[in-house]
Amino acid sequence: MNRSTSEQLYQEALQHIVGGVNSPSRSFKAVGGGAPVFMKRASGAHFWDEDGNRYIDYLAAFGPVITGFAHPHITAAITKAAENGVLYGTPTALEITLAKMVKEAIPSLDKVRFVNSGTEAVMSTIRVARAFTGRSKIIKFAGCYHGHSDLVLVAAGSGPSTLGIPDSAGIPVSIAHEVITVPFNNLDGLREALNKWGDDVAAVMVEPIVGNFGMVMPKPGFLEGMCKLAHDNGSLVIYDEVITNFRFHYGGAQTYAGLDNHEQIAPDLTAMGKIFGGGLPIGAYGGRKEIMDQVAPLGPAYQAGTMAGNPASISAGIACLEVLQGAGVYEEMERLAIRLTGGLKESADRHGIPLTINRIRGAFSTHFCDHPVTDYEEAQDTDGEAFASFFRHMLNRGINLAASKYEAWFLTTAHTDEDIDATLEAAEDSFRAMKEER
Ligand code: PMP
Q: What is the pLDDT of residue 434?
């Protein structure tokens, strides 16, 4: 496959844009480097690059594009918003419509506030939790990603009861000391951390279903236990649902039928983003009324945004949720994902390549290993070189995946059986080539 234009554009981009990309996960650093593909146009489940090559896409722009690209209903909503003026700096009726739609789907939200990204949503939940509890520390779980604000780019210290260490240059150690990172799916670490730091812990924050070291379900009882430990300690529970809201069903991970005891796992605050912006920038956070009423202009916790709740993002979001309300859309994505994961596993087995697949409805992760992946350590302990090789073989056969062994594949409402057949054919060729290279 000729990608010479992408290579040229990459060289040019490097002169002007740091690393040639506007978000590090778009680079190919995690799969051995080189020029990423410069896409020119997208429609449905397909991309065309600057050289005219066509790809079947499973990246879905890291999650938001659940209806496929340029869905006519969403395009019409964006066009109308553009014609009406894209930004007012005043409230609009549209914001109430989307707020009601999100609240109806996720009942733990008494009140919401729209922001522009998942990072902002998470950042704001932490501010509000600190304002409400008068405490400063946060406990989070290893491998969960919560955006790029200072407090959540902190790695674990040497054990569950040690304070965090900065996970990026530019983060003061004093800030990292406000965070404790404990293992996912393991209540002992959380218990230990709360025993040591409990009086200072404003909130325990988690991806209730993990989307950032593969797709990983909480073990039965984990979320219930986590909520109980946090609440007994007077700490709030924050769910980061940026990648899981509206992903598995029309609602959040917290209302997904695969998780029981919805009342016992209800969070105090939820950070959201991605899907309900219909592909335009969006985030939101919300939760219990008395907690959200801490936010300005009602309360003392300040949070603001020039672009927040802009009519274009909100209109696209409403249209996207309307598409997702259609009968059987989640069932169809799941049906295709079952076909795809079944075929991938068969193909990998046929060529003796260890592969663990974690699938939750229409989303799944592929881990090159022969053990289960239930926490971050197990996700790290997988064959990154095998993934990188698979990624490149698939790309060369017209299949676009995320360039990281930790990221998921996402089905959209635009994928068809024909796409699955073509993907399985590419995978069979890729696994065969990988076996021959060994
Ligand atoms: N939280 C989670 C769970 C995410 O997956 C992401 C993005 N991948 C974020 C927060 C940050 O969102 P954004 O990139 O919109 O700032």
A: 97
DSSP-derived secondary structure for 197-224: HGGGEEEEEE-SSB-SSS-BPPPTTHHH
Does pTM top 0.95 for this prediction? yes
What is the DSSP secondary-structure string of 116-168? SSHHHHHHHHHHHHHHHHS--EEEEETT----SSGGGSEE--SSTTSPPEESS
Asked whether 106 lines ligand 1 (CB < 6 A), one says: no
- The single residue of 145, 239, 330, 376 carrying the catalytic annotation is 145
Average pLDDT, the chain: 97
Atom of ligand 1 nearest to the CA of 117: 15
Residues 254 and 357 both lie in one domain:
no
pLDDT tens-digit map of 189-233: 999 999 999 999 999 999 999 999 999 999 999 999 999 999 999
The tokens describing 388, both together, are: 């990188």
- Based on the domain organization, do 62 and 81 belong to the same domain? no
In this structure, the answer to whether residues 32 and 167 fall within a common structural domain is: no
Task: Encode pLDDT of 4-29 as tens digits.
Answer: 999 999 999 999 999 999 999 999 99
Closest residue by Cα to atom 9, ligand 1, is 147
- What does DSSP assign to residue 210? B
Q: How many CA atoms lie within 13 A of 302 on its CB side?
A: 0
Catalytic-residue membership of 419: no
Same domain for 131 and 264? Answer: yes
Containing domain of residue 373, as a range? 4-70+327-437
From the candidates 55, 58, 140, 240, which is the catalytic residue? 240
Residues 45 and 188 in one domain: no
- ipTM for this prediction: 0.99
Same domain, 242 and 279: yes
Average pLDDT on 72-89 reads 97
* Domain match, 50 and 27 both: yes
- State the closest ligand 1 atom to the C-alpha of 118, by its place in the atom list counted from 1: 12
What is residue 194's predicted lDDT score, i.e. its pLDDT?
A: 98
> Which of residues 307, 325, 343 is at a domain's end?
325
Asked which of 325, 343, 369 is the last residue of a domain, the reply is 325
Is residue 196 annotated as part of the catalytic site, yes or no?
A: no
151 shares its domain with 220: yes
Domains in the chain, number: 2
Pocket lining: 117 vs ligand 1, CB cutoff 6 Å: yes
Do the beta carbons of residue 89 and residue 202 sit within 8 Å? Answer: no
How far, in Å, is the centroid of ligand 1 from the Cα of 27? 17
The Cα–Cα gap between 394 and 54 comes to 12
